[in-house]
Amino acid sequence: MTRLIPLAAWALLLHSSLACAATDLASQLAKAASSADPAVVRLALAARACALESGAVDPGARLTLIDYSKPSTERRLWVFDLQTAQVLYAEHVAHGRSSGENLARHFSNANGSHQTSLGLFRTAETYQGGNGYSLRMDGLEPGINDQARPRQIVMHGAPYVNPEMALHQGRLGRSYGCPAVRPAVARPLIDSIKEGQLLFAYYPDSDWLAQSRFLKCETARSGLAALYSGGNRAGAAP
Q: All domains of the chain, ordered by start, with CATH?
């Protein structure tokens, strides 16, 4: 069973000049994306900073955040332009059919699980497949999401990502683990984040938060002295 811990335990109190700039960017992005949890935005930026410090990725100009602690009936995917601190997209996104109903609760890296994966991904090439225009993604976290490509976890449009229908049935339709979006927005959204941009998929899973290689660098850990300093909606058990 997935174990949860308060997101406040992973709050980021960054003290260097670089960290201050990152904190300022986090504040700007959180303000621009008013429906996003500011703490989750900060965590996504911290994971990106750790990835940059490790040399695992190039900076990129865009950052995609998916907050799976939110129900599928709410917009929970944001694409940020890091150069202008603007939100390019705020969209509904599906989760895997075996991850849960309206709320995703279970996550996996295993082929055939039909569950969503968490963590940091790097976007790759596009292709035309059975679900139309699609975007391949490479998971950057061993044991967490590194089977994304073999599992064919891709971003694509899907008719079951229908917010109006979700209001009647209580949830969006679900995928086999892919972060599917509305067909009308799939191509322009994919084109805005393809080829080497980062995507951060969040849920307050204690095992992932403790194991993630991108939440262990000094940039991400400098705020751990403030563990459990306050409650947070996204970190509360559903």
A: 7-235 (2.40.440.10)
